[in-house]
Design brief:
Layout (H helix, E strand, L loop, with lengths): L1 E9 L8 E9 L2 E6 L10 E4 L4 E4 L1 E6 L17 H13 L2 E9 L3 H10 L3 E6 L3 H10 L6 H5 L2 H6 L4 E5 L8 H16 L5 H12 L10 H10 L8 H33 L3 E4 L5 H7 L6 E4 L8 H13 L3 E5 L10 H11 L5 E3 L10 H10 L5 H7 L2 H6 L18 E5 L2 E10 L2 E5 L2 E2 L9
Parallel strand pairs: 1-4, 1-5, 6-7, 7-8, 8-9, 9-10, 10-11, 11-12, 12-13
Antiparallel strand pairs: 1-2, 2-3, 5-14, 14-15, 15-16, 16-17
Helix pairs in contact: 3-9, 6-7, 6-9, 7-8, 7-9, 9-10, 11-12
Bound molecules: zinc ion.
Length: about 450
Amino acid sequence: MTTVVRGGDLVDGLGGDPRRGVDVVVEGGTIREVVEPGNGEYPSAEVVDASGLLVIPGLINNHTHGTAYGPLFPSGHEPLPVAQVDANLDRHLLEGTTTLLCVDGFITAEAAARTDEAHPITVKAASCNTPACLEAAAIADGGGLTDEHRAFTARRAVAEGAVALGEIGAGHTLGGGGASYLYIPEQIARRTGVTVSAVQANDLKVAVLGRHISTSAFDRDAVEEALAGAGLAGKLSVEDAREIVSRVVLPAFDVALRGLAEAAELGRDLGVPVLVHNAAASMTQVAAIAGTDVRLVAGHSNHPSFTTREAVRHAESLKEKGVVVDVSVLDTFGGERPHLTDLLYALFEAGLVDTISTDYAAGRHDPILLAIDRATRAGVVGLGEAVAMATSAVADVFPGLAPRRGRVVPGAVADLVVTSPAALENVRTVMIGGKVVVREGRRVAHEASHDR
Ligand SMILES: [Zn+2]
């Protein structure tokens, strides 16, 4: 079957400026050619009208959680219900993602394949099943890990289709976002009955352990202030708060840090990229394993724990050592933390960004295309460049993730997104492997599985 995506402005994923008004001809699952519009050579083709719209390659998202059937996060948390995983995948799809890497890390090959079968998005897994990461997960949580998961080592995962190691040292074992939005609120609610927000829990965490996670950073006044801010004054003592935060964060912390060096070595051995949790707490260890001959991806180099200056300097020094600098959209625009926009824009403006992903942000990540929309309007990155960072660049960094994808060129797999130039996040049409799976911004029915 032939489909012509007609008359759209094309950003082909290779980094250049848009090409005005072209037809993208798709035959079977492949892009056949890109031609001047309306040349009439394909009279029987199905037409997707893209006039006045922007055509880009399907996005390739290298950092997602809750997107495969199995333990959630690299802390081995209990799996999300299948319906929730499906809903997460739908959301990524409607945001223009056509390939994603689930970096929960304990997903088995069978579960990854089952998820991939069940949804039009191409789902691949990364593994964090190394001895130290498994130990850190067991300490921090491990509630979703069965004997089968424990036995499914990273080596085996890669042999059976995992395309990377990761997320190594995630926020759930390294005192990052996961501690703030999941484990600390859980413990506080258990102790006091009070529900605290991720931002409140994070303030408390920083007051007890600092941004770089160290017991010497304890600041009694800041803890009192954070307790008051969270409505916990008189309900939780400073000492109890210190104990809760310390008990959530510290036991797994050193083990997880050790996991970074261990994963770098294994990644080198297995010849796959290693995606690491890059944050204030892990930056020294990430820098230490940079410059070795492993392909290291510094995940979310705009992590909220960094100051802007620190993030830029750190990314500069990582990049000098050949590390891939990834930024995650997180909840930068929809969230409550204004400094996240500065962080993201500063990295774009300094020309340091290689790839763009979403990460999880407690399930509230903003769309990649929203970030590209805002950042291009702010003038900190060009449109062609930014689209490449979320498509071809990701395919190049993770060779097993999306071969022949991420570009609108003849011979590539026909993963396409048609969206509005006035609001890039307003995705109209998504095509995966030549099949239209989103039309007018909605999932097309009867496309639940892809038969490629
Ligand atoms: Zn993550």
